[in-house]
Amino acid sequence: MNISPPSVALLTLIVLLGSCVGQSDISPETPGTKNETDERLLATPPKDWVNVFQLNHRNTRLTDFIPPGQSKGDWSTKLSFEAHTTEALSLDPIELLFSEAETDRSRCNRVRHHNIFSGLENNYQTSVRLLLCGENTTTSRGEIKLIKVIRGNDYLYSVRIVRRTPPFDVNEEEISKQEVALWSTYLRKISLCDGSSGHPCPQPGAKAESQGYSSQ
């Protein structure tokens, strides 16, 4: 698929995201994300967001949150925490996000995606990617997704923020810089640890704030 050069607005967005995603502060643990080992995904949804779905199997765990005032069947913004055992999902973070982009190509009329960060966070392989779907052929809506994937020793974790919009031209879509800054700040506060010297957890008493973002 040939892709035309990015617009100035989109390049500005990518630069802003890149400056925000990096080694994260640690947030309180999200219920249901601790596995059988000491490996923990440290995260929390924004204040007052509502848990609308939860699946808790050994190989797959999934929790969805939406802002207050939105409904499970008709939301505009959704936050999802996922965990798949490394046995069930052998992809690394970059491969998983490329697979997501390929899925978007099969279901969207217009697609663009950009690497925001790929490297180590707390010595875990981590990748963050921005994906733009100009029009989902099923929902007839546009989608803007920011996804962070962390490969642990036992689970492959992903945290995704999805915004539904009216259909748009992926080369021209204007995205609020303030919203993007809040999204990326939220993601960089999410971390993985197991208490070892290679993947240390926060000390007792350490405190971090969860970050909200615009849901309109």
Tell me the layout of helices and strands.
Layout: H1 8-20, E1 29-34, E2 40-42, E3 50-56, E4 60-66, E5 77-85, H2 93-107, E6 111-121, E7 124-133, E8 142-151, E9 155-165, H3 177-188, E10 191-193
Antiparallel strand pairs: 1-2, 2-10, 3-4, 4-5, 5-9, 6-7, 7-8, 8-9
Oligomer: single chain
Question: Which regions have little confidence, pLDDT < 50, spanning 5+ residues?
Answer: 1-36, 207-216
In which order are the strands of the major sheet placed?
Answer: 3-4-5-9-8-7-6
Structural class: alpha+beta
- The level-1 CATH class: Alpha Beta
CA gyration radius, whole angstroms = 17 Å
CATH fold descriptor: Protein Transport Mog1p, Chain A
Per CATH, which architecture? 3-Layer(aba) Sandwich
**Mean pLDDT across all residues, rounded?**
79
The CATH H-level homologous superfamily: Mog1/PsbP, alpha/beta/alpha sandwich
| Count of all domains | 1
Textual characterization of the structure:
- With 216 residues, the chain is of the alpha+beta class.
- The protein has a single domain, classed as Mog1/PsbP, alpha/beta/alpha sandwich (Protein Transport Mog1p, Chain A, 3-Layer(aba) Sandwich).
- The protein contains three helices and ten strands.
- Strands 3-4-5-9-8-7-6 form a seven-stranded antiparallel beta sheet, sandwiched between helices.
- Helix 1 runs parallel beside helix 3.
- It is globular, with a radius of gyration of 17 Å.
- The two termini are 32 Å apart.
- Mean pLDDT is 79; it is low at 1-36 and 207-216.
